[in-house]
């Protein structure tokens, strides 16, 4: 699951989302948030399809309620 950067969602909101929905520690959430900010995206976690789809819906709904355009996408794991 990837969080995508935008120019409007506050960094603290991203950290809160990572803590609440992905159970990341404060330090891990901040590191992921910085990756999103600097690299355009960050990995929130790896989940089964059903869990990933639920998390996308939860995070998207929370972001919209707060008025932020934060995007989270579930992508299939790349196999080499």
UniProtKB/TrEMBL annotation:
It comes from Deinococcus gobiensis (strain DSM 21396 / JCM 16679 / CGMCC 1.7299 / I-0). The gene is clpS. GO terms for molecular function: peptidase activity. The keyword Magnesium does not apply. Involved in the modulation of the specificity of the ClpAP-mediated ATP-dependent protein degradation. Keywords: Hydrolase, Protease. InterPro entries: ClpS, ClpS_core, Ribosomal_bL12_C/ClpS-like. Residues 2-72 form the Adaptor protein ClpS core domain. Binds to the N-terminal domain of the chaperone ClpA. Belongs to the ClpS family. It holds the Pfam family ClpS. GO terms for biological process: protein catabolic process; proteolysis. This is ATP-dependent Clp protease adapter protein ClpS. The lineage of its organism: Bacteria, Thermotogati, Deinococcota, Deinococci, Deinococcales.
